[in-house]
Structures are given as C-alpha cells and as structure tokens.
Amino acid sequence: MTEDRDTRCQAADMLLDIGIRIPVMPLRPFKKRPGKSFLVMRRPPAGAVIRIARRYLELGVTPEDIRAMDYEERMRFVAEKGKAVSRMVALAVCTGWLSGMLFSGPVAWYLRWRVHPAMLSAALIELLRGMDIQPFCNTIPLASRTVGLLEPIGSRERKTG
C-alpha cells in the first residue's frame, strides 16, 4: 500500500517537474488556423506555494472530499469556489513574484472561460498532490533550535541568584 502511494507521489512529482499541459480551447474568430493551445503548469517555487496555500485554506476542502461529493454537492462547490480553483491553477502557471501579482487574475479568467471544468479540477488535484511542503515544515523547528547556537558566546546574560 505504501509503495503504491510512493509511486503515485513520484509520478506526480515528475509530471510537475516536466510540466502538465492544460488544454485550452483556442481563440479562432474566423476558424482559419486549426491548432491546439495549451498552458503549462510546472512545480511552483516557495513564494507561489505560499500564495496557493492561502487560497487552498480558504477553500476548506481536501481533494478526498471533492472526490467523495455527489453531483449536487459538486455543482454547489463549483458555483461557490470555482473562482478560487481557477486562481490556484493560474498561480501555478504564473509562478513569478511579479507575474503572479499581475497576470494570475487575467489567466484565471482565461482558464474559467477556455478550459473544461474536468481539466481544471484534474490540474488542481495534480498540483495539490505534487506540492511537497514537508521539507518546509521541517525547516521551522530546525531554525528555532539553531537560534541559540548562532548567538555569540559572551552575549548571554548571567543570572545572579
């Protein structure tokens, strides 16, 4: 069971390293150029992960909860949280500091209107599965332990009884 889960996590990691193509319906006003359009979602850096994590916590739903929903619950979820889902995927596409602030809103709008909802939710689930925040969480306790080591030896005050 654990090997199967590890294999799935490694596959999600590889997909995010290579980049997941999100198929987008192309804008063809006169239908002259047949072609395929897509956006590429890659593994986000730490700043983008923080932005995505904020949006994820606003959702209040786990991927397992979404899979367990019936049709009525999914429609209610899409109606209430569809913008946040598209914004999270847009933040995974626009991973830079400036591009995340400037372009994630227009890219989220573009994703809402040009991407099939099943593709959008699949991209979100792959993103959440592939984002490994465990090393980040391990760094915080380690940093709190090393604060005492980094102080100069003579800087600590002696207690007098």
What is this entry, summarized?
The chain contains seven helices and two strands; from the N terminus they run H-E-E-H-H-H-H-H-H.
Unreliable parts: none
Shape: globular
| Spatial gap, N to C terminus | 58 Å
The number of helical elements comes to: 7
Could you tell me the number of beta strands?
2
Which class of secondary structure composition applies to the elements? mainly alpha
Output the strand order for the largest sheet.
1-2
Q: Please, what is the average pLDDT?
A: 77
* SS strand fraction: 5-15%
Instruction: Return the domain count.
Output: 1
Work out the helicity level: 55-70%
Largest sheet: 2 strands, antiparallel
Order of helices and strands: HEEHHHHHH
In angstroms, what is the radius of gyration?
Answer: 21 Å
How does the SSE layout of this entry go?
Blueprint lengths: L1 H17 L1 E5 L12 E5 L4 H14 L3 H6 L2 H23 L3 H18 L2 H14 L3 H17 L11
Antiparallel strand pairs: 1-2
Keywords: Membrane, Transmembrane, Transmembrane helix
